[in-house]
Design goal:
The protein is mainly α. It has helices at about 5-10, 45-55. It is globular. Bound molecules: protoporphyrin IX containing FE (HEM). Protoporphyrin IX containing FE binds near residues 1, 9, 13, 21 and 23.
Length: about 60
């Protein structure tokens, strides 16, 4: 996959499979069962998403 394809799957995998169990690392709405103290937060920040994408791109 290209860096952009990887990025899109990390940000919101449900875009490709609405029923996926894979967590959306950059989504903070439309989620269920989020602890009250973590409401509104994303799993990863933009910089962390880019770090994961950069790492995955080295594995080609
Ligand atoms: C940083 C961690 C992760 C990365 C980089 C990642 C990356 C990916 C990518 C690139 C795909 C697409 C594969 C393809 O279309 O051939 C994928 C699919 C998938 N991922 Fe992840 N993933 C991660 C974490 C997880 C976690 C934690 C889960 C489950 C708890 C998960 C569950 C799945 C499943 C079930 C699919 C198959 C397609 C689907 O059902 O949507 N992933 N993942």
């Amino acid at each position: 996959m290209s860096e952009d394809q990887l990025r899109q799957r990390l940000v919101d995998p449900a875009r490709f499979n609405p029923k996926t169990i894979m967590p959306a690392y950059a989504r903070n709405e439309g989620l269920t069962r989020v602890a009250p103290s973590l409401q509104g937060r994303t799993l990863l920040g933009n910089e962390q998403i880019e770090d994961v994408v950069a790492y995955l791109a080295t594995l080609k």
